[in-house]
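User: Structure tokens for this complex, please. No commentary.
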Amino acid sequence: MIESILRYEFLQNAFASGLIIGVIAPLLGVFIVVRRLSLIADALSHVTLAGIAGSLYISQSIGALALLNPLYLGIAASVTGSLFIERLRRLYKHYEELAIPIIMSAGLGFGAIFISLAEGFSSDLFSYLFGSVSAVSRQDLWIVVIIAVIVILFLCIFFKELFVLSFDEEYAKASGLPAKWIHVLFMVVTALVIAGSMRIVGILLVSSLMTLPVAAAMRISKSFKQAIFFSITFGELAVIIGLVSAFYLDLAPGGTIVVTSIIILLLTILSKKWTKKGVLSQ
Amino acid sequence: MATPLIKLDNISYQYEQTKALTDINLTIEEGDFLAIIGPNGSGKSTLLKIILGLLKPTKGDVLLFGKPVNQFKEKERIGYVSQKSNAFNTGFPATVEEVVRSGLVKKIGLFHRYPKNVQKEVRQALKSVGMENFANHNIGDLSGGQQQRVFIARALISNPKVLILDEPTVGVDSKNVRSFYLMLTHLNREHKITIVLVTHDVDAVSKSISHVACLNRTIHFHGFKNDMDTMSDEQLEAWYGHAVRKVEHRNEVQV
Ligand SMILES: Nc1ncnc2c1ncn2[C@@H]1O[C@H](COP(=O)(O)OP(=O)(O)OP(=O)(O)O)[C@@H](O)[C@H]1O
Ligand SMILES: [Mg+2]
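Assistant:
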């Protein structure tokens, strides 16, 4: 395996972006889960699909843009979607979750239109839907690196503030934190991570890399620090096992990564049960 | 006279349906210990939220430390414990220590991490609410009353000049209620912390407080605690909506 990675550039790209995403997706995911925004991540990934499909259609029909990286429009769509969700959540104050189906169906609707407009990019599209080991370009890797830098910077500045905001929003506001701005920035950064992770895990499964490792970590964490540590550990584990098995078995990495995450989640649930039984029998 | 710490000038507040407050004038001076009392729905929590800048009054001005509330930047000088302590996410993966130190978030500011010695400050704050043995417990595993005490510690850790407490002792057992009020009295008298307390336990706090405000959409009485005793039962009934016992602790009050 190591040998193949050293030999093939596409494998280097896939593994390097995978390892980066394995850190930033669950790291941001901790905040997404505790703030009960998991479904928003899903909605955003569907909006990203619209951007990707739109971009594939544009490069197909306009010769000059044939080489346009679909990630750019994907990112643009995702960020726009995140801002729309915020607007909608404010409009429907008492039914905040209504923003999710609205944005999700908008994303899928536009996606379906662009996909049917441009027939014949099914193999490309498949790799965007479920991830790919072979399709990650050097440019994709650089985009992931830039997104990772933005995420780390964002968390360095706002980590404490995000904790307070997630734990107790009213208290955050009463302490004079610019809660609204931190939240909007958070949504934009989330949109970036979703667009960036999509190349590896695929649009349909991207939100699971943000939520499943966190769900497992929350079973066994007492502190926030532990929750972050275990989320990243589980995320990395899922990405590494998922990518290696995808490569050898010639499967879509989105599938193998998510199934690995599910297995980790089941193991944490079971281990909690066993330790509880152990404690009781003592 | 020094500038009042909190000054409400002709405040009214209207929710979509309900007019919660009308023409409130209230001045709180440094060192005051004010109890705000009134029946359910009388606008007590709304009034506190307006003081904190969480709600914008429909009419009138709020001055904190002499500055309009929207220009007042040193929010760490005001500690707040909200009425619904269970407004937070239960099941949130955080320890008591992580929650308490988050009371320093504004003081420390963006970019900076919690300092190394923050643990000491956390212990101190937890000690003052009798929870020093729970620092490493998960916040969700505590009882409602214990959680409430943790939130009080979170408000105390930044050494605020003013403490604003909305029914902080709901769910706290009577022994701890007593020690909690003793602690407030101590903070107020020895550390000169100004306290604004919404409560229904008029009896339990009457020894500690210096001022009372009786609220029911508008302020029916505001003044020295002693002067309230001169109100007739009829007057009290008129604003509270039903009969209440007058508080009789005249001999023990040292204002
Ligand atoms: N978010 C809200 N939206 C609409 N109306 C509200 C809201 N919060 C409070 N009210 C209304 O405003 C009035 C005052 O409410 P408030 O919570 O300030 O009362 P309170 O004195 O704190 O009562 P309690 O003793 O029950 O805590 C009530 O009639 C209530 O119905
Ligand atoms: Mg109230």
